[in-house]
């Protein structure tokens, strides 16, 4: 049973906004595009895992997806957590194509594709760290410990997986996505002792969800990009040119002559993602290149934003 779903990652929205609002010759664009592609691939890998679990009618265990917890001041994230009365299973999804070598000596995953080698963090070690953090979280919450198993799920069917230390450890900890349900059945056969009732288990699941803390990323700080480098203006929904101009209650693109009444909505979302989670009338005007304070006020009110503060210092937020 699904108790916590997987939402579209905020970081992908942030990177998309940044890619659209930097000059085409900006030196950070290749890095940003590469990170966007990797994160998007990861997201689709997680979705593929979700599809396999969702394909089982009346799945008897509790599923929590995209769970982020704070343990002793450190945030850690779990792709998929399965709670059963007998054991807990952490699933770490990886959507990587090519020839993959798990180097157990240096804790690296080395991908060879088109004669090019690329190193990734070892997902087996990642899942072990998640296990340790979850054990500490259970201890801090006074929850009796479960047996906690970990699996790395390779969701890309074209991956060829090998290990420097033989395949025995690898076959136990790394599996293709199509074997997930089979491995869950094996673990269910292995762990026969019922530690919690389903009622108690649901209470633990709700406690985990209540303590979920989405990780916040200051993307400009992370990539060392100044706010002044971001291109302001409303982007044309048809040809993507910026800026559109506001005229007679509509946004007009001077390049393709597209008209829109709500093109500013995406621009405001971009501001909230990249600059600040609140916006003032002045910031609204500056970012949308809108000269009129009154028009800015009307648009902000029409968007249904909540507000706080006095007239001169009022901030709007979703």
3D structure, described in words:
The protein has helices at residues 10-20, 29-54, 123-140, 168-173, 180-190, 198-210, 219-222, 264-274, 281-288, 293-302; strands spanning 2-4, 62-71, 74-83, 88-94, 99-103, 108-113, 116-121, 148-154, 160-163, 174-176, 245-247, 250-252, 259-260, 279-280, 306-308, 315-317. It has 318 residues and is an alpha/beta fold. It has two domains: 2-210, no CATH class; 232-317, Arc Repressor Mutant, subunit A, CATH 1.10.10. The strands form four sheets. Strands 1-2-3-4-8-10 form a six-stranded mixed beta sheet, with helices on both faces. It has a four-stranded mixed beta sheet with strand order 7-6-5-9. A three-stranded antiparallel beta sheet has the order 11-12-13, with no helix packed on it. Helix 1 packs antiparallel against helix 2 (29-54). The protein is globular.
Write the layout of secondary structure elements.
Blueprint: E1 2-4, H1 10-20, H2 29-54, E2 62-71, E3 74-83, E4 88-94, E5 99-103, E6 108-113, E7 116-121, H3 123-140, E8 148-154, E9 160-163, H4 168-173, E10 174-176, H5 180-190, H6 198-210, H7 219-222, E11 245-247, E12 250-252, E13 259-260, H8 264-274, E14 279-280, H9 281-288, H10 293-302, E15 306-308, E16 315-317
Parallel strand pairs: 1-2, 4-8, 5-9, 8-10
Antiparallel strand pairs: 2-3, 3-4, 5-6, 6-7, 11-12, 12-13, 14-16, 15-16
Helix pairs in contact: 1-2, 9-10
